């Protein structure tokens, strides 16, 4: 569904993506994980075309991203950023329907889609009438997800969608998100810095370090056959954290 080939993106002297090659299989969930600043968000922004690579190619759905086709291809991707990225001065409904209105969907089509999405993300309809600052953190993320899913894109990109939530709401939304991914059969790329979340969601995990792929594969592979000391230490550090909490 998404293929990056030798993708490099620098910011000044910083190599945020350093010759990354990566395949995101269709209908599966791929999780990008790694320490802060390792380039997770940069890879998502490259895939959705908000930033363009210095070199290398990005293919989405068989089409190579170019300046000419960016806008069209973007309609085939839903994007949820941390904190939701919703416009605070519009209602939640206004946020969700923005793009569909821009594309001149009919009122009936918009209404039907909203109804289906409310059911899917388990949000009470009246929550759509208020601006996002009046929603709880969990509700805001549900609205962000509705917005991302509005055009029914085959590809869903989520940047730490649960990062800002407190633990109980986080657990709730985690369960709902996985159900949604499975029900819809979307191709999902999800960013987290939490290994347990990565294992929970990911058919495939991509561990990044300093803009490079340290290892990619199912969680079990990273745990049982780490490709380097870095991978072993990253997995152990996060595991010993929960072991310490368990005792
Ligand atoms: P992550 O999401 O894994 O925390 P990012 O992809 O946001 O990491 O950033 C990777 C590196 O690139 C960091 O060192 C960050 O400071 C740098 N970077 C990202 N975006 C920009 C930008 N727009 N301008 C300058 N530096 C950036
Ligand atoms: Mg980030």
From TrEMBL:
Source domain of life: Bacteria
Alphabetized PROSITE patterns for the sequence: ABC_TRANSPORTER_2 (PS50893)
One protein family per Pfam: ABC_tran
One example GO MF annotation: ATP hydrolysis activity
InterPro entries found in the cross-reference section: AAA+_ATPase (IPR003593), ABC_transporter-like_ATP-bd (IPR003439), P-loop_NTPase (IPR027417)
Residue span(s) of domain ABC transporter: 2-235
Keywords (A to Z) from UniProt: ATP-binding, Nucleotide-binding, Transport
GO biological process, one term: quaternary ammonium group transport
PANTHER family associated with the record: OSMOPROTECTANT IMPORT ATP-BINDING PROTEIN OSMV (PTHR43117:SF4)
Family: Belongs to the ABC transporter superfamily.
Protein name as it appears in the record: ABC transporter ATP-binding protein
Originating species: Longimonas halophila
Upper classification of the organism: Bacteria, Pseudomonadati, Rhodothermota, Rhodothermia, Rhodothermales
């Amino acid at each position: 569904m998404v293929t990056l080939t030798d993708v490099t993106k620098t910011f000044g002297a910083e190599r945020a993506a350093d010759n990354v090659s990566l395949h995101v299989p269709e209908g599966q969930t791929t999780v990008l994980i790694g320490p802060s600043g390792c380039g997770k968000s940069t890879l998502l922004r490259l895939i959705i075309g908000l930033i363009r690579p210095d070199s290398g190619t990005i293919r989405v759905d068989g089409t190579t991203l170019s300046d000419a086709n960016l806008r069209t291809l973007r309609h085939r991707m839903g994007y949820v950023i941390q904190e939701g990225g919703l416009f605070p001065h519009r209602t939640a409904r206004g946020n969700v329907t923005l793009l569909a209105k821009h594309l001149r969907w009919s009122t009936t089509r918009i209404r039907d889609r909203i109804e289906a999405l409310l059911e899917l993300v388990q949000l009470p309809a009246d929550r759509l009438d208020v601006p996002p600052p009046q929603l709880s953190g969990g509700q805001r993320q549900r609205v962000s997800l509705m917005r991302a899913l509005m055009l029914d894109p085959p590809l869903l990109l989520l940047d730490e969608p649960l990062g800002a939530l407190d633990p109980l709401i986080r657990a709730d939304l985690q369960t709902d998100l996985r159900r949604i991914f499975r029900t819809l059969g979307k191709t999902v790329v999800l960013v987290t810095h939490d290994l347990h979340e990565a294992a929970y969601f990911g058919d495939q995990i991509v561990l990044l370090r300093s803009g490079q792929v340290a290892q990619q594969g199912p969680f079990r592979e990273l745990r049982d056959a780490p490709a380097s000391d870095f991978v072993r230490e990253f997995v152990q550090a996060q595991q010993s954290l929960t072991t310490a909490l368990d005792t």
